[in-house]
Amino acid sequence: MTQDNNTGDQPPPEPPKRGSMRFQDANTQPREPSLAEQRARRQALVDEERNEELARKADAKAATRRKSLIGSGVTVGLVGLVATFYTVAKPEGDVTAVCTDSNGVVQNDDYCDDNYVSSHGGYHSGGFLFLPIPGGGYNSYRYNYGGTGVIGQRVAGGSYDAPSARTNVTTKSGKSVQRGGFGISGKSGSGGSGKSGGS
Prior knowledge:
By secondary structure, the chain is an alpha+beta fold. It folds into two domains: about 35-90; about 95-180, no CATH class. The chain is built from two helices and six strands. The protein has helices at about 35-90, 115-120, and strands spanning about 95-100, 125, 130, 140-145, 165-170, 175-180. A six-stranded mixed β-sheet has the order 2-3-4-1-5-6. The protein is rod-shaped, with a radius of gyration of 51 Å.
């Protein structure tokens, strides 16, 4: 007679199939992490904190660099502006003006001075100054720039074309004809060329 190990009509539980999964129910206690897993978790937390700190430092460094670049850009801009101003404002050079008559003979500096000429009944026209002469008519005068000579002699060298507005022009006696720099002009006499009046 065979002995039946089963009690009742229940069939015996089947062994779990290969590759199948067992599910934990709510009463299952989680397994304590191993020592290696605990170490790995601690290291991961340390790494995460270090990465966050590095990211904060990198952000702070980038912000400082941005401020520095903005500040240096403003400084460079201001330096450039000031340098440009001084370059423009700086006179190109100094030229001596010599007063001559229509024949190129050196004359008294007053004869090329607007104020002197107008106060003596003369006028300024076409780059020349005209002074009345006794008995009627006018003598014409103009500046020669850069020439040399003494009163009564023909001027040597120079040009009758006025220099740029950035050039300081003075007479031999020290009177300022034109103050150069930044387009400032303080002319007290005539310049340029034009047709002569009567002589």
